[in-house]
Amino acid sequence: MRSDRGQKAGWPLTLAAAGGIAFLHLPILLIFVYAFTTEEKSFQWPPPGFTTQWFAVAWNRPDVWDALILSLKVASIATAIALVLGTLAAAAVARTQFFGREAISLLVILPIALPGIVTGIALRSAFSLAEIPYSMWTIILGHGTFCVVVVYNNAVARFRRTSSSLIEASMDLGANGFQTFRYVILPNIATALLAGGMLAFALSFDEVIVTTFTGGQQSTLPIWMLQELIRPRQRPVTNVVAVVVVLATFLPILAAYYLTRDTESVAGSGK
Amino acid sequence: MSEVAATSILPKTDGPLGRLSDLFWRRPGLLLLLMLLPPLLWLGIIYVGSLIALLLQSFFAIDDFSGLVVYEITLDTYKQLLIPANFDIILRTILMAAAVTVASAALGFPIAYYAARYATGKWKAVFYLGVMLPLWSSYLVKVYAWKLILAKEGILTWIFEKLHLSWLLDAVLALPVIGGNSLSISYIGTFLVFVYIWLPYMILPTQAALERVPGNLIEASSDLGATPGQTFRTVLLPLALPGLIAGSIFTFSLTLGDYIIPQIIGSSRLFIGQAVYTQQGTAGNVPLAAAFSVVPIVIMGVYLWAAKRMGAFNAL
C-alpha cells in the first residue's frame, strides 16, 4: 500500500515531532529531580543540593499511607465492577443486533464524554437528595461508572475480532454455554480484559474531579495531593509522592501495551 | 429414526447448568436481556438518574432572603447565567477551550503525521508509548510539574535568565489581561498547562486518521505539480480533518469542565468548572451550580452533533 517506505522526513517535521514528544516528557522528568532537592520552602531551580532524606520522611507519614490504602481499595473494587459490567455490555453489543444497540454504546461512553464535573455534581446532588452518607462506597459508585467504558472499549474490540465460528464449533462438539464461555471465549478475551482492567485501575487510581464531589471528608491519594497543591504543608514530601505515583501508573500502562500488542495472531481468530 | 440421525443428535445435556444453557440457546433474547440488565441498571439508575436529578435542580431557584432552595419550576436560575459576571465566566471558558484546541491541533499534527507516515518498527512503538505514557500518567502530578516549571523561582525563569532574555519574559508578563505577576498566576500559564495535559487526546485520533491516508496520494499530488503547501492544504488536511475534529471533541470538552488547573495555575478569575464548584460548595446555591453545569452539556451536545455530521466518529 505504501510506496514511501524508507523515505526520510524533512528536518522541520522531524524537529517539530521530536520537540512535541520532548514537550510531553520533560515536565514529568523534572519531578524526579525535585524529589531529591534539599530546598524545602520554594521551587528553586537549580536545586541547591541533593538528598534522599525525603523518601524516609514520606515513608513515615501515616496520612500518606491512609490515602494510598483507600485509593488502592477503591481502585480494586471499581475495577472489579467495571470488568463485570463492561464485559457483559460488550458481549451483548458485539454479538447481537437489537433495538437500542447504539443507545447502549452511547450510554456507556457518556460518563467520559461529558466533563467530569458534570458527573461529579450529578452524583453529589443525587446522594444528597437520597440522603446517602459519604463513604468509601460513594467514591466507588462514581469510579465504577466511568471505569466501565475502558473495559467495554477493550472487550468490544476483541469480541469483534474473535470469530463466531469458534463458538459454533464448541457448541457443535457438545459443550454447553458455560463450558464454551470457560474454555473458548474467556481465553480469547483474557488479555483484552486484563488490559482493560489495568487501564480502569489506573483511571480510578488517578481520578480527582469526580472524587472531590463524592468523597466527603475522605482522602484518596489524588485528593491528598490536591490538598497539598492548594495548601502546601511539606513540599518535599509531595515531590516524593508524585514520583511514586508516576512510577506506579507507568507499570500498568506498559503491561497493558504489551498485552494488547500482537492480538491479531491468535490461531483461528480471524474473521 | 435412522442410525445416523440418532448419533448426530446429541443427548440432552443434564444438570442445572446444562438445562440453563439449553434454555439460553433456545431463547437468545433471554440471555441478551440477562447480559444487558446489570450494566443498564448500574448506568441507568446511578448515572442517568443522577443526571436527571441535576437537570431538575437547575429549574429550581434559591430564595434571595432565606438562602433556601424553593422547589418550584422556574427559569430564574437560567436568567442569572446571563448577568454580566456569570456570562463573562462562560465566555472566558469557551475562549480558553477554543484557544487550547487550536494550539493542540497545531502542536499535535506534526507528531501524529511523523508517527503515522515515517515512524516504522521500533520507532512506531516509541512514538505510541511516547504519547500514551504522558496521557495516562497522573493528572495532578502533571499539573504539579507545571507549578514547579512556572514558579517565579523555577526553571523557566532560570532559562530565560541564562539566555539573557529576561526582558522578553517581563514584556510578555506585562501584557494586559493575559499577563500577570508571574507565569503561574496568569492566563498564559493556565493555557500552557491545558495544552500540555490535553495534547495526547488530540494526537491519537489525528494519527489514526493520518494512518489511513495512502502515501501515494501525497506523491500523486506533488507529481501533478502541487507545492508541499498546496498538498497539505488540498490533500492532507481534508483527509485528516475527521481525526482533528475527533481530537478537538476531547480538548474542548475537557477544558470546558476542568476546575482544578485554573484553580492551581491561573489568575483568580473563574472558569465554568470553578463556578460550579464554588456555587454548590461555599455559596450553597445548588440550582445555579446545576444551571452552570448544563452549559457544557449543551455546548458539547451541539459540538458532537456537528462533529457527527462531518464524519468525525469514524476516526475515534
UniProtKB/TrEMBL annotation, chain A:
Domain ABC transmembrane type-1: 68-256
TM stretches of this protein: 12-36, 67-91, 103-123, 135-159, 180-202, 238-259
Membrane topology: Multi-pass membrane protein
Keyword annotations: Cell membrane, Membrane, Transmembrane, Transmembrane helix, Transport
Keyword Membrane: yes
Subcellular location: Cell membrane
A cellular-component GO term for this protein: plasma membrane
PANTHER family from the UniProt entry: PUTRESCINE TRANSPORT SYSTEM PERMEASE PROTEIN POTI
Family: Belongs to the binding-protein-dependent transport system permease family. CysTW subfamily.
Name of protein: Putative spermidine/putrescine transport system permease protein
Protein source organism: Allorhizobium borbori
UniProtKB/TrEMBL annotation, chain B:
Subcellular location: Cell membrane
SUPFAM superfamilies assigned: MetI-like
Domain ABC transmembrane type-1, chain residue ranges per copy: 90-307
Record keywords: Cell membrane, Membrane, Transmembrane, Transmembrane helix, Transport
Domain of life: Bacteria
Main location: membrane
Family: Belongs to the binding-protein-dependent transport system permease family. CysTW subfamily.
Its membrane topology: Multi-pass membrane protein
Any single biological process term in GO: transmembrane transport
Transmembrane feature ranges: 30-56, 89-113, 125-146, 167-199, 239-261, 282-306
CDD domains in UniProt: TM_PBP2
One GO CC annotation: plasma membrane
Keyword Lyase: no
Pfam families listed in its UniProt record: BPD_transp_1
Species whose genome carries this gene: Allorhizobium borbori
UniProt key word Membrane: yes
Protein name: Putative spermidine/putrescine transport system permease protein
